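Hi support team,

I submitted a single chain yesterday and got back a structure, but I'm not sure I'm reading the token output correctly. Could someone confirm the output below corresponds to the sequence I sent? I've pasted both exactly as they appear in my results page.

Thanks,
R.
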Amino acid sequence: MNDIQQVVDFFVEKGVDIPSRQEVRSYMLQMYSHYGKSTINRKLSAIKGFYDFIVSNSDLDTNPFDCIRSMKAPKELPTFLTPDEIRDLLEKTDSPRDKAILELMYSSGLRVGEVESLNCSDLDLESQVIRVTGKGSKQRIVPVGRYAIDALMKYFLHRGIKDPIYVDEPMFLNNKGKRLTSRSIRRIVYKWSTRMAIARHVSPHVLRHTFATHMLDAGADLRSIQEMLGHASLSTTQRYIHVGIDHLMKVYDASHPRAKG
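Hi R., thanks for writing in. Yes, this is the structure output for that exact sequence:
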């Protein structure tokens, strides 16, 4: 209501009944000078809805704000944990199942839905890889680090499983012996990160971002990270360039013949 009242007051003050394109632009310029992109988009949505209502209930033929497009909101950079934060989180998780989940997510950059759908037989201990079913039922093979392998083996031994590749059961079970759901996995991540008093919300996707960021900072190429994350487009993976820009600049300065004067 405030957004609509503001635009009404603006045109009433100018003695305008039905605003022209120039008058609409004048109002938008005022908004550009006072608000951020997300606020402007919210206000514009309310204003367009208001004039759509007038068009459908009066003789007004067109919405005067139809000529205005919403602004592109700035993309937020992925949130990630520092190496110290992720180490503390993993080392102080004392539940065998929960530790295995957290270690695997950080080790291999898996989506929460991918973790939910895993079966024991998807893990090849000898090759230290795991078969993951991603979006669109596309499967990929992802490496699993030794800390994650150790945590998974402790969890499997807790369940009486010696070699998971021969076991056709869900990899992670709840207290009722059923497959652990994505919602429960999110709760597990939140529970342990809260106990660690990490000063921001930690979700499974934050662990995935952390994996990608730390891989990039350690020198991994984008194509390899793309394959491990299961991104269909390299442009999706390139978001992590902005996170690891300091590392990239150091590599550039050290490697490119014309990087220095």
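A quick pointer for reading it: The beta strands are 123-124, 129-133, 139-143. Let us know if anything else looks off.

Best,
Support desk
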